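fwd from M.: "can u put these together and see what the complex looks like"

so here's what she sent:
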Amino acid sequence: MSAHSGAAPGGHGPAREATPEELSRRGFLTKISLAAAAGVAGLIGVPIVGYLLGPLLQPTEQQWRSVGMVDEFAIGQTALVSFEEPSPLKWAGQTALTAAYLRREDTDSFVAFAVNCTHLGCPVNWQPDARIFLCPCHGGVYYANGDVAAGPPPHPLFRYDTRVNDGRVEIRTRPLPVA
Ligand code: FES
């Protein structure tokens, strides 16, 4: 005769099946535990997700950004300038910087083009001798005024508003349209 016959594992007496009341109580306690865990996860998780995604859902502000003194730019010349986007993302760092091509047309008249090709967004290059913008990705070509000269771009280069304020050239930031 076996010494383990009829004993529960661990030596706590004979095993017996749980009664329907005990099963029901266990099920209830399990559900309570799961509900409590879900509640705690929600309490912790919702603020974190809100913190991370909230700035992405806010409308982007438009702001005037200085890109230099008026006298830094020669009339008729096109220069690459950089400025900070009004990004609400605190962790954006260097990625908050963007660029534009700025051309001084007259004494206090400037035009600014986004650097992004309207085909798939590659940065275009200004070719001063030919007076065209070239896109290195798929051969898009733009005239000096931003109009499409050749290749796949569907639209002229996007423009930013510009103004002269207290001797400085300013560009008004804006989200660029998705081509
Ligand atoms: Fe410029 Fe395609 S991204 S031509």
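replying to her w this: Residues 1-11 have pLDDT under 50 and may be disordered.
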